[in-house]
Specification:
- The structure holds two protein chains of two kinds.
- Helix content of chain A is about 30%, strand content about 20%.
- By secondary structure, chain A is α+β, with helices and mostly antiparallel strands.
- In chain A, strand 2 and strand 3 form a beta hairpin.
- In chain A, helix 2 crosses helix 6 and helix 3 packs across helix 13.
- Chain A is built from 15 helices and 21 strands.
- The relative contact order of chain A is 0.18.
- By secondary structure, chain B is of the alpha+beta class.
- In chain B, strands 1, 2, 3, 4, 12 and 13 form a six-stranded antiparallel β-sheet that branches.
- The termini of chain B are close together.
- Classes of the chains: A alpha+beta, B alpha+beta.
């Protein structure tokens, strides 16, 4: 399987977008590049941008490797991609409004009702509740992969609390510092307006009863969460308070933040706590991270939660397989972005095929994320495949399978020099009462191991700066 | 049958609580098998008590009070008229499609032992209704139901492994099996009036309901080994205990909580059936 290389295409022709970069890579003295690489690492260490790997006893905090060679997209490529992302996120929001409201897509047979009703992320609390301004998924991270010059696939939708946007911003920051000369020879679309756009989005969805300058806070599970750095980074960039559950209190269905000047009313909460833990009176009663009474305040219309409760029903991997139909049904348009062909193991025929072809396929847990609980057939050993076979037979409805895609590659620094490595892209799409916005690019993740297709940071992936060229 | 219920849930705190919020699911609704003649909920502490409904249609009260609170009791009393409909629940409010009740929850997730038990005990039964009766009879036989005093639920798989649990556990075990057999099943909390003929008729109780195409929702009480009759008063239902719990609360301060519950459900005097 030969992958499309974003620098050289399918053969050895240099693609124009990478011409300057290619020249720079050839001309820059190796010792300068080595120096810049160590400076970049030092920069990330100094700012303390780390992540935690769950289930890893030895080191709770690690640095995600950063590769200094940027990943480049042309303006026309991005324009098409962005149109597809807008369409997809529009459909996701309409789908959520529908399954928690009139359920037209279930009545029309677009998606089997039991996939929605049986889904643990389908929150009964949200049924027939009107969310402020009708928006559920304010912040979406849509994972996209590329297989040739013209074809992008959506690999998965992240509609709950997608993370990684701080890396998108810090990666750009470090590139600007270390390689000003490259920005002189390339017109790269900026990403530093993301916090402004996020703030505008959050302000736009404040309850209608809120003052014109609504009070906003970012709710984190705390410093032991793997994305805590990002929570504090974003709160700082947004200029809003970073709070934990114990900093908030609910009285008469109104949410207040404890401050040194006494309680201050809160109108919008950018929450980075999962549904299950957000209010111990309604969801898991053993949660100490949440705010008792928050759901009551939410349902009284006194506070906006971003993202809304219950968005997980839209990014389930079994629901994903119906996204082309969902996009068509709600937007009336053909989907601009393709879906990866998906076998739903809940369907006996599909599961039979999957069981016969495990060594060729990627099998994922319907509710899994972060690359955990996933089988990459071509890279798995016999024992791993047999373990998965047992899991699949025991609960087929918990899995989907996809062909192993030849993800595009980008030139990347590795021990032996510069070599192609597989990449994906997570653009961040914001939806508010003020419309949809999406900063050009997103977070490029790269699988640093030769031949590896798993880009997740928890599985040895790194990141790159993503450039959308304005001209 | 007319059943008089009184239920007191009392909390004492070694260190007074600064604030308490509780969601109370302690109010029955009418359905064909029960009519609420009178019902009262009274907290012994001044605070705000607001009535509402949850997604299942259960009647709830949200109670909140500011401290210092050293003791708090929620006192519930009422009179219900019941009719024996062999466990069928009709004429009530149904807000959630039955398909929702096929999903597993933390407390009702089956393990391998439960899955095979569900299949083996129902293999001979012909109809879905017969399968559910076979399952109830088998669990009534197999499991010991403990009195609730000082015990909390441990979840379906653990209770089945131990072959004992409180009524809540038995309901979860039954639900886990029923769901594994593809039947929508839900948890019910309520009361059972004192009765000579029932082994577990000590007031507060829990059982399960299964949705069958031909009948709608039908109750199965594994602890007593029968479908609910006119001794049973239905209070709240949900995906599992946590959806239907009589009290869910949070508090600031109030360390050293001691809980005492006194409940009685008795056939009302002067209304003895003339049989």
């Amino acid at each position: 399987m030969v992958a499309f290389d974003e620098m050289t295409g399918s053969g050895s022709d240099l693609r124009p977008a990478y011409a300057e970069l290619d020249r720079w890579l050839k001309e820059a003295p190796p010792e300068t590049l080595a120096l810049r690489r160590s400076q970049a690492e030092l920069f990330f260490r100094r700012i303390g941008i780390t992540f935690a790997v769950y289930g890893d006893e030895e080191s709770t905090e690690r640095l995600i490797p950063f590769d200094i060679i940027p990943r480049v997209l042309t303006k026309p490529e991005w324009t098409k991609l962005e149109a597809g992302l807008r369409q997809r996120v529009t459909a996701l929001n309409m789908f959520l409004a529908d399954v928690y409201g009139p359920k037209e897509c279930l009545k029309a047979g677009i998606i089997p009702p039991d996939l929605v009703y049986g889904n643990a992320c389908y929150q009964l609390e949200m049924v027939d509740f009107q969310v402020p301004h009708g928006i559920y998924c304010h912040i979406a991270g849509i994972d996209v992969v590329r297989v040739d010059a013209d074809t992008f696939y959506v690999l998965e939708d992240n509609a709950r609390t997608p993370s990684g946007v701080s890396y998108m911003m810090e990666n750009r920051e470090v590139m600007l510092r270390l390689f000003p000369e490259l920005f002189a020879t390339h017109r790269v679309a900026p990403v530093d307006n993301y916090p402004d756009q996020l703030l505008a989005t959050l302000r736009s969805v404040a309850p209608r009863s809120a003052p014109s300058d609504p009070s906003i806070c970012l709710l984190t599970p705390g410093q032991f969460n793997s994305a805590f750095y990002e929570h504090s980074f974003l709160a700082d960039k947004l200029g809003v308070e970073l709070v934990e559950g114990s900093d908030l209190l609910v009285k008469d269905d109104v949410v207040y933040m404890r401050t040194t000047q006494g309680p201050k009313r809160v109108d919008v909460i950018y929450r980075r706590i999962d549904d299950d833990f957000i209010d111990p009176l309604v969801f898991r009663s053993d949660s100490v991270l949440g705010v008792p009474g928050l759901i009551g305040a939410y349902k009284a219309g006194n506070v906006t939660l971003a993202n809304a409760v219950g968005t997980g029903v839209a990014d389930d991997k079994a629901v994903y397989s119906y996204m082309p139909e969902i996009v068509k049904f709600f937007t009336g348009e053909e989907p601009i972005l393709k879906n990866v062909p998906t076998w739903r193991c809940r369907e006996p025929e599909a599961n039979a095929y999957v069981l016969d072809n495990l060594e060729k396929l990627v099998v994922k847990e319907v509710n899994g994320s972060g690359g955990y609980g996933m089988l990459v057939g071509p890279h798995a050993n016999k024992a791993q495949i047999e373990t998965f076979r047992k899991k699949l037979k025991a609960s087929p409805e918990g899995f989907i399978a996809q062909p192993t895609l030849a993800l595009s590659t980008c030139p990347t620094f590795v021990a032996s020099g510069v070599a192609p490595r597989h990449v994906d892209l997570r653009p961040y799409v914001l939806s508010g009462a003020n419309g949809i916005s999406c900063v050009p690019g997103g977070l490029t993740r790269v699988a640093l191991k030769e031949g590896s297709l798993v880009v997740n940071s928890s599985q040895g992936g790194g990141t790159k700066d993503t450039w959308v060229l304005d001209a | 049958m007319r059943i008089r219920i009184s239920h007191s849930i009392a909390y004492a705190y070694a260190e007074p609580a600064r604030h308490i919020t509780q969601i109370l699911r302690l109010t029955p609704r009418d359905h064909d098998g029960q009519h609420v003649m009178s019902w009262r909920i009274e907290p012994t502490v001044d605070g705000r008590l607001r009535a509402g409904q949850d997604p299942h249609g259960n009647l709830i009260h949200t109670f909140s009070a500011d401290g210092p609170i050293a003791t708090l009791a929620i006192q519930v009393s009422g009179l219900i008229e019941t009719t024996d409909l062999a466990g069928v629940v009709r004429g009530g409010i149904e807000r959630v499609p039955p398909e929702v009740f096929r999903r597993d929850t933390l407390l009702s997730a089956p393990d391998e032992a439960l899955r095979s038990f569900a299949l083996e005990t129902t293999r001979e039964a012909g109809t879905p209704l017969a399968r559910m009766h076979a399952l109830m009879d088998a669990l009534h036989e197999e499991m010991t139901c403990q009195e609730p005093a000082d015990r909390i639920g441990i979840g379906a798989a653990a209770a089945f492994a131990a072959r004992e649990g409180i009524a809540q556990d038995l309901a979860h075990v039954f639900m886990a099996c029923a769901r594994h057999l593809g039947m929508p099943a839900r948890y019910v909390s309520g009361y059972v009036a004192e009765s000579q003929s029932l082994p577990h008729a000590s007031g507060a109780h829990a059982w399960a309901e299964v949705h069958l195409d031909d009948y709608g929702w039908i109750g199965f009480d594994c602890a007593n080994g029968l479908c609910p009759i006119d001794t049973h008063v239905r209070i709240a239902s949900g995906l599992d205990y946590s959806d239907a719990a009589p009290v869910r609360g949070a508090r600031k301060g109030g360390d050293g909580e001691r809980l005492s519950v006194v409940v009685s459900a008795r056939q009302a005097a002067g209304f003895q059936a003339n049989q």
